Amino acid sequence: MSKIDIKLSGVGGQGILSIATVLGQAATQAGLQLKQAEVHGMSQRGGDVQSDLRLSTEEIFSDQIPLGKADLIVSMEPMEALRYLPYLQPKGWIVTSSKPFVNIPNYPDQTALMAELCGREHVASLDIEALAAEMKLPKSANMILLGMAARYIDILSADELRQAIRAVFAKKGEAVVEANLKAFDAGYDALKK
Amino acid sequence: MGDEAVALGAVHAGLSGVYAYPGTPSTEITEFIQNSPAARERGIRSRWCTNEKTAMEAALGMSYAGKRALVCMKHVGMNVCADAFVNAGITGVNGGLVVLAADDPSMHSSQNEQDSRFYGKFAMVPILEPSTQQEAYDMMAEAFDLSESLKLPVLLRIVTRLAHSRAAVEVGTPRGQNPLQADKERTHWVLLPGNARRQYASLIEKQPRLLQAAEASSHNSLQLSGQKGLGVIACGIACNYVREAAPQGISLLKVSQYPLPVSLVRQLADNSSEILVVEDGQPFAEEQVKALLSAGYPVSGRLTGRLPRTGELNPDNVAAAFGQPAASAFAPAKNLAGRPPQLCQGCGHRDVYTALNQVLAEYPDARVFGDIGCYTLGALPPFQAIDSCVDMGASITMAKGAADAGQFPAVAIIGDSTFTHSGMTGLLDAVNDHANITVVISDNLTTGMTGGQDSAGTHKYEAICLALGVEREHLHVVVPLPKNMPEITRIIRDEINYPGVSVIIPQRECIQTFNRKLRAKKAEQK
Question: How far away is chain A from the Cα of B23, in angstroms, using its nearest Cα?
């Protein structure tokens, strides 16, 4: 049996659910079992957003990941990555953007926050927004993050994810597809294992 | 997504119309049908309704005419349509009628976690509760068949975690729609007391058939372990959490169709030494199981504290009920803060609250009665501008009642869609009583909180208010933008001081729908 449980997190509007859509598309094409739980409604903009994505070669029961069972936390925001620590399994990885999104008055001290995050083992963090801006792909920061996460997702190959990006963004035109593929590769190459 | 499975299941089951008011987590069902090419091809009626009661009644009318109709709502919508729903059990149906209620345990975006299964039992109709997206799809066709064979509405209950969770679903063969065939039997439908008594007796006579259907249902299944240990009753989605925990040596009764399959429960009890009831929502089955078994038989669940009394089930609290400790390797992080949702930057509601707060600072005794929508977020910092939020439409009527008691100023703030849903009738009460209230209808031309669905009264609010008797000189439409602040604050101040009903309509399109249209336009030009 092969499986991966991924916690996706971020702030409403950052593109977390698009990452889930691409992973879901790739998993379906690969014939994997899939469950993906998300909560939307009052978190239209600015609130925390989270989604549980479970992929497996065997039947999956719960839509939600149990505590201590997530293999990977993929987050568009560093504090939102830390929020789900109790769900991470002992050898699990955190792949996150290092750029805080400060839209609340009581956002924690950023130095302390980054020290807590980077003081951990198994963390890959990168200022994906800066990289996206540098590459002139401001709308594809989330695909850079997916490219980074791809290094830790063994159940799907990078090529399967690239094909899924094509399929998911096809209706938005070739330019959007290419931008997202470029972003994905930048994230993938940023973490040479 | 579970919502999409329900929608496609209904389309494939020969649906002719869906009737709904948006409400999380049910909204995507109707949206899926509205956007489905198959539904368009089949001419399925799918426009949003003004509220859940008009939806339920229109669906009953479609059923009367012989066709299959679906009504969708969030759990609290059941309160709004309860009159029609309960009486549809008395009239019975002609074409299949399925009522879908999406419950929200843990109140992810609701004001309570009421369990819709009580409504099904109250109305004495069959209830289906899928555990997976596949079962949700499959159950749709079965629900319509069951509805037509029993001549009763069928309640399909889902919860947030099924509604908003994705999984692969295998689809079946679509069925055609029913022909138009209006019912000829007047005595079923004219609920004068003489007819109603007969219909109620006939509903009670049908009950053994409902029980038989539940006991024979392939969705209710009993697996005995062969040892007389723990017996588990798992309802709907709860079954997944039990399977995830995979406790050894238990007997398991999965329940996905009600009335509660009594003989299966007895069989489980006879082959177990105790029973644990695992159900999402309120202890609906647990109470019935306790009543069914002898007084000394040990039954546990949410009522006994073996499972939490409130909040949704999850793999962790269900595992704990089996004595499996949570397996967190890491403690919660130290540098954390809550991140509640906020009104969008550029949202017109923000300017409305800025103006309101500015004027009300002059009136320390003022009370603002809020309502249900994005603008409920005005309760949170930085605005902290509303004193109540109870149910759809309660802003106007509560302001009126408080004003009747002498409260001054009494201000109501309500969104456009909520106003047509349940605010108009209250405004008529206020006008008739010449209540001293100031009503703000914050009109963003859409149903914002659920993602921008059409709002029933768009471009009609002035006309509606005038027709209800609001005086022309005390009805104002303004544009909530910072540059208009002096005008808006002056109007609010003047109308608070007017001793009667006044209505102010700040009108500016929701920033989200505005940007979406802009993007669509740009894409078109490319």
Answer: 9
Describe the crossing of helices A174-190 and A158-169 by its angle, rounded to 10 degrees: 150
Question: Do B247 and B113 fall into the same domain?
Answer: no
Domain that includes residue A136, residue range: 3-190
**Chain-chain contact of B166 with A24 (C-beta, under 8 angstroms):** yes
Supply the ipTM of this predicted assembly. Answer: 0.92
Say if residue A93 is exposed, middle or buried (CB neighbours under 10 Å; 0-12, 13-18, 19+). Answer: buried
B-proximal residues of A, 19-48, CB under 8 Å: 24, 28, 33-48
Find how far residue B139's CA is from the centre of its chain. 19
A61 interfacial to chain B (CB closer than 8 Å): yes
Spatial neighbors of B467 by CB under 8 A, at least 6 apart, are: none
Question: What's the gap in Å between the CA of B312 and the closest CA on chain A?
Answer: 11
Considering its fold, how many domains does chain B have in total?
A: 3
The verdict on residue B331 lying in a domain is no
How many separate domains does chain A show? 1
Q: How many residues does chain B have?
A: 526
> Given pLDDT bands bounded at 50, 70 and 90, which one contains residue B524?
confident
Among B187, B216, B245, residue at a domain's last position: B216
**pLDDT tens sequence across A4-41:** 999 999 998 888 989 999 999 999 999 999 999 987 65
**Residue of A34, A43, A68 with shortest CB distance to B327:** A68
